[in-house]
Design goal:
There is one protein chain. By secondary structure, the protein is mainly β. The strands form 9 sheets. Strands 1-2-5-4 form a 4-stranded antiparallel β-sheet, with no helix packed on it. A 4-stranded antiparallel β-sheet has the order 8-10-13-12, with no helix packed on it. Strands 9-15-14-11 form a 4-stranded mixed β-sheet, with no helix packed on it. The longest helix is centred in the last third of the chain and has 8 residues. It is rod-shaped and about 195 Å long.
């Protein structure tokens, strides 16, 4: 208690310390939360756990029990399909199908205070494995460019579950290294050589995986379609002919054959160029000299001609050939006068005699001269060797030019 004093006196205040005590009052829960166990139509069997319940309460140490209670008539329509054991919400005595279910749960604390909360339980459909995989196209024309990845076709999946989504991947096959998947497209990788004659089909296994991780694998065969390709070469079975061979009719030189990437192709042949094309013709697959062509090695020993091979699809290949003549041994030609007058007992120089051998060149030849009566005389010289002088037979040996020079003033006949 405070006491007052008159002025000029000391005032003393007296203070008392008070202690105020708060008593804890139990408060009601504020939530009855549900954590789903993720039921599916395959797992929502009788007595299966649908999920767990947990209360939110200002009183941290409070304990709670849970029950199903009536709601507003719409949010509790499925109460009868569930039971609660402890804090576990369970399916009742009948298995549930896929769908959503509405219940109202109550959390009651130790003092009987409650909180009601509407819950929605979802039973999802069973995720089924994909059952098939299809490719919109499975063939590609050979020689198609793969400068960049080449799309073969689009992949689609068959699945019992509607609305599923899928991803695709390469998982096997003898030729898997040649393939890739972009989105839902199966592709040949960039740089893959597509040559029907080398490889006409490819094996690859593709996997489709749904959003739940279930997958289906399928082996696919990708084929190349054969595209007609041009011939790449022409061969001639023989390319030489002996000079002076008769060309009274067309003369076969050799048979023509073609090289082509495509097996089973057929070919026709024609002369299309070359400096000497006018001397040639083709009959069937035979390259021929035309009838009447003079084949003289010393005049012309090689011929240039260009031949074309055309396949049944009209694609062509041209090749230049050189046809050669082989040199034959031509018969020498001796020129003699029709007659020559000789005085008996007097020596007379022979004249008008010459020899021509187009094969001789500068090589040595021999020329035999004979007379039915009298003798022939000559002396070696000028590159000519004489044998048999003074007899009825004379032999000259030397080059063609030397012998002809010798004959113009060398041998003499005496009767």
């Amino acid at each position: 208690m405070a006491k007052a004093f008159t002025p000029n006196t000391i005032i003393v205040n007296e203070v008392s310390l008070l202690t105020i005590t708060l008593t804890n009052v139990n408060e009601a829960p504020t939530a009855a939360n549900f954590t789903s166990a993720g039921l599916t139509a395959a797992t929502a069997l009788a007595n299966a756990t649908a999920g767990t319940l947990a209360a939110t309460d200002p009183d941290a140490s409070d304990t709670h029990t849970f029950t199903l209670v009536a709601g507003d008539g719409t949010n509790d329509v499925d109460n009868g399909k569930f039971t609660i054991t402890g804090n576990t919400l369970k399916v009742g005595g009948t298995a549930l199908t896929a769908g959503t279910y509405k219940v109202v749960t109550r959390a009651t604390d130790a003092s009987g205070l409650t909180f009601d909360q509407a819950q929605t339980i979802t039973v999802s459909t069973v995720n089924n494995t994909p059952t098939d995989l299809t490719l919109s196209a499975s063939s590609v024309a050979e020689n198609t460019s793969t400068a960049s990845a080449l799309t073969i076709g689009a992949l689609t999946s068959t699945d019992p579950d509607t609305g599923n989504t899928f991803t695709y991947s390469i998982v096997g096959g003898a030729d898997q290294a040649s393939f890739q998947v972009s989105g839902a497209n199966l592709q040949f990788k960039a740089g893959t050589t597509l040559d029907y004659e080398t490889k006409s089909s490819y094996a690859v296994t593709v996997r489709t995986t749904d959003q739940g991780g279930l997958f289906y694998d399928k082996a696919l065969t990708i084929t190349l379609t054969d595209v007609n390709e041009a011939p790449t070469n022409i061969a001639l079975s023989a390319s030489s002919v002996a000079e002076n061979t008769s060309t009274a009719s067309a003369l076969n030189i050799g048979n023509l054959t073609s090289t082509d990437p495509d097996t089973g192709n057929t070919f026709t042949y024609s002369v299309v160029g070359g400096a000497d094309q006018a001397s040639f013709q083709v009959t069937g697959a035979a390259l021929q000299f035309k009838a009447g062509t003079t084949l003289d090695y010393e005049t012309k020993n090689s011929y240039a001609v260009t031949v074309r091979s055309t396949d049944q699809g009209g694609l062509t290949f041209d090749k230049a050939f050189t046809v050669t003549l082989t040199d034959g041994n031509d018969k020498p030609v001796i020129t003699v006068p029709a007659s020559q007058n000789i005085t008996i007992g007097a020596a007379a120089a022979l004249s008008g005699i010459s020899v021509a051998d187009q094969d001789a060149g500068s090589n040595s030849i021999s020329l035999a001269l004979s007379v039915p009566a009298g003798t022939l005389t000559a002396t070696s010289g000028g590159g000519v060797t004489v044998s048999g002088s003074g007899s009825g037979s004379l032999t000259l040996a030397g080059s063609q030019s030397a012998i002809n020079t010798f004959l113009s003033g060398g041998a003499k006949q005496t009767n």
